[in-house]
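Possible regression after last week's pipeline update?

I re-ran a chain I had predicted before the update to compare outputs. Posting the input and the new output here so someone can diff against the archived version. Not blocking, just want to make sure nothing changed silently.
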Amino acid sequence: MPLFGRKKGAEYSYEGKYLGGHSAFPKEMKVHINLMPNYLEIQEFPAFIPYENIINVQSMSQEKLSAMRLLLVGIFAFAWKKKKQFMVLTYKDDAGIEQNPVFDMKKIEEVQPAIYRKMIAARQK
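New output (post-update):
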């Protein structure tokens, strides 16, 4: 279910906050993630990620992210609330470099399994 106006052609659209983890995008920002038929789109980057390029999508608590987030967002990492779940999307970009963007998603319980299903379906083709 979308949290904002669904982009034309998107099967699902979600709103969240990007916290860091992508080499080309060091600043936090509000993001819209669209699940298109063959790729995941992050409008604000912009990024178009084919589902077959996604390595993993998982939720992590603050404790699990503590070492990672220090590398990703520096001193601001300590401002995150404890026990909150964040979505980590691991994928290979167009240059073949592994990216690990971290998102604070409003509907993590919906978006994470939806991305996972798309990733698995792309691998089975």
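Follow-up from reviewer: compared with the archived run. The two ends are 26 Å apart (CA to CA). Marking as no regression found.
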